[in-house]
Each structure stands twice: as C-alpha cells, then as structure tokens.
Specification:
By secondary structure, the protein is an alpha/beta fold. Among the domains are: 97 residues, 2-Layer Sandwich (Nucleotidyltransferase, domain 5); 131 residues, no CATH class. It has 16 helices and 5 strands. Strands 3-2-1-4-5 form a 5-stranded mixed beta sheet, with helices on both faces.
Length: 347
C-alpha cells in the first residue's frame, strides 16, 4: 500500500481541508448537537478535527510575539479535580496558552514555549497569589511586576468573614440544643404559633445572614440591610469582622498614595482585632503587600482572565463536556485566541 500526501487534505485525516474548516467554524458558533447532526459526524471526530485545525493555525502565526503583560489563572474543566492553567494577554484580551494541570511544572511549559529572551521582556503579571505561580515567576521572569488580583484578595477576606459567621452560628446551635424543645401535639387554643426559643431563632438568623455579609453595601436589598443592622446590634464580633472585610475592599478603590497608608492601617487593625481568622489573614496580606499595591498602582487585575474563563466554561457547557482536554484547548484557542476559523470560500 502506498501512502501519498494530497493537497486537499491533512496528513492522516479522513476529511478534506474544506470539511475540517467548516466543522471548526461551526464548533465555534454552534452547540455540539447542531454540529454533529448537520455534518453527520461524531463529537469525538469533531475533537480530532479541532485539534488538527488548531495545529495548522498555530503554525501559521506567532501568538506570543510582543507579549508584555499577562494574566495567569486556573479553571476546572471536568469533575475529579481536572484543571487547565490558562494565560491571557492583558493588552489584546486574547487567550495565549492553556494546558491541563495546575502546578509549577505545567506553568513552566508556557515559559519554555515563550523562551528565555521573550520571558525577560514580560513587564507585568497578574495572578491570584498561588505559591506555585510565584515560584515559576521568580525563576523565569524575576524582573516582572507581579500584581495580586484584587478580587482574590477580597475573596480571602470574605472567606475569613464566613469563618467567623460559621463559628457564631455553631455557637448559637449549641445553645439551642440546651433549650427546652417546642411542645408537640395540639396547637394553642387561640390558634397562634408557638415561637422558637431565642437561641434557635438566633441560629436561623445567622444562617440566613450569609449574603447580607458577603455582598457590597451598595447592592444590598432592603431585607439584607435589615439583616445587617440586626448583626451589628446583636453580634459586635461578627460585625467587626464584616467591617474588616469592607475595609480591605475599600483599599482597592483608593488612589495609590492613599492606598499605601490605608493598607498599613488595615494590617494594624486586623493584627489587634482578636479575631483569629483575620489575624491569620493579615499575615497573608503582609506577605503579598508589594503585589497588592502593585495591582493598585498599575490598575491590573485578573478581570480579563476571569472573562476568558467564563467563556471557556460556556464552551464546555455547550459541548456537554470534553473527554480530551486537547480538544477543549483547541476549541478555546480557535474561539478566544484572536484568529477564529473562517468558512471555506468566504472572505
């Protein structure tokens, strides 16, 4: 048997260039069902076509040329702790690179592809403060300014606040167990309901206070504002934790010169607040102080990366999941990499 290359198909492909291009275009625009039914092929075949089309597109242009400011994050793409590490160009908003895994070795793959010379030209990097990201950045582009993503920093404070809320809720539940239970059987003669005991009421109220404490004050509903006022009146410790969370969030809204002083004052406040979750948090803030202030000074966050991640999640949902991460990466790069596939015969 003789195997010969033909000009109208890729190597080891069962379809023509035009067919592959049509399928790739449809995959970036339509659902899995629409592509498979219209083209009469299996979804697994679509994945193989996407991988081939992306390989050719990647070879035709240098997607890493002129990259100066990047954002790094990870995204879950499948159950079972399956993650992709993604890198996005801050200036163009395009997805630059993605690979399965979320560890230092995975990220080193991006800088291996970028090369030592172009790695040295990276000026700014935004990330969420993960130690494995910091390790690789120190190795490959130590001169780059690292910016801590404000969203993740405020998320740390929100998690610390929720830890305080859960502790207060558990304490109220313990007291509720010691209260006499509500009598069962016939209702009161006047038809009125027998109210819960005070500790039981408090436990229920604290459980329902989660979103009132999490949300920004400007976005609170009337009911949530009432709930927050109740927390301020009945639980000074929890309300102080809420004020610490809001104080840290406010730092990111200030001009750089004011933010420097405000962050140092926040650290001092958290250090002596006697709330363990926030005492622990201030240690992390001190460790990431330079990158937090760099994010404020340079106005850099992972907002673009989160937008790309949202689109990758949408691609995964529309495709009803991907058995192979390579097929997902190929479709994500074709959709979000700045060079989408074109329909054959169209300009």
């Amino acid at each position: 048997m003789i195997v010969a290359a033909v000009p109208w198909a890729r190597h080891d492909a069962g379809h023509t260039h035009a067919f592959d291009a049509t399928v790739a275009w449809l995959a970036t625009k339509c659902s899995k069902t629409a592509v498979t039914e219209l083209m009469r092929i299996a979804w697994r075949t679509v994945g193989a076509i996407l991988t081939r089309v992306w390989a050719d597109a990647d070879a035709a242009w240098d997607r890493l040329a002129g990259v100066r400011r990047i954002g790094i994050d990870e995204i879950s793409y499948k159950r079972g702790h399956k993650y992709l590490t993604v890198v996005v160009d801050h200036d163009s908003g395009h997805l630059l690179w993605a690979a399965p895994g979320r560890d230092a070795q995975t990220l080193r793959g991006f800088f291996d592809l970028l090369g030592a010379e172009r790695s040295a030209q990276i000026t700014h990097v935004s990330a969420d403060g993960a130690p494995w990201i910091a390790t690789v950045l120190a190795e490959r582009c130590p001169e780059a300014i690292v910016c801590a993503d404000p969203f993740h920093v405020v998320k740390w404070a929100t998690e610390a606040l929720d830890e305080v809320r859960k502790a207060a809720w558990n304490d109220a539940r313990k007291h509720a167990r010691k209260e006499p239970k509500r009598p069962r059987g016939r209702p009161r003669a006047d038809g009125a309901n027998i109210p819960d005991r005070p500790a039981t009421q408090r436990a229920k109220a604290l459980k329902g206070a989660r979103y009132a404490l999490w949300k920004n004050p400007a976005n609170l509903t009337d009911r949530q504002q009432t709930k927050l006022a109740w927390v301020a009146k009945t639980d000074p410790r929890l309300y102080r934790a809420y004020l610490l969370k809001e104080g840290l969030r406010t730092v990111f809204a200030l001009p750089y010169t004011q933010a420097v002083e405000a962050l140092d004052r926040w650290v001092s406040w958290a250090r002596r607040c006697r709330i363990e979750a926030f005492v622990k948090l201030q240690r992390s803030i001190v460790r990431h102080r330079d990158s937090i202030l760099a994010a404020i000074e340079h106005g850099l966050s992972n907002g673009r990366i989160e937008a790309v991640n949202t689109k990758i999640r949408l691609i995964t949902r529309i495709g009803f999941g991907f058995k192979s991460p390579e097929a997902l990466i190929a479709l994500a790069m074709l959709s979000l990499g700045g060079h989408p596939p074109a329909l054959p015969g169209r300009k």
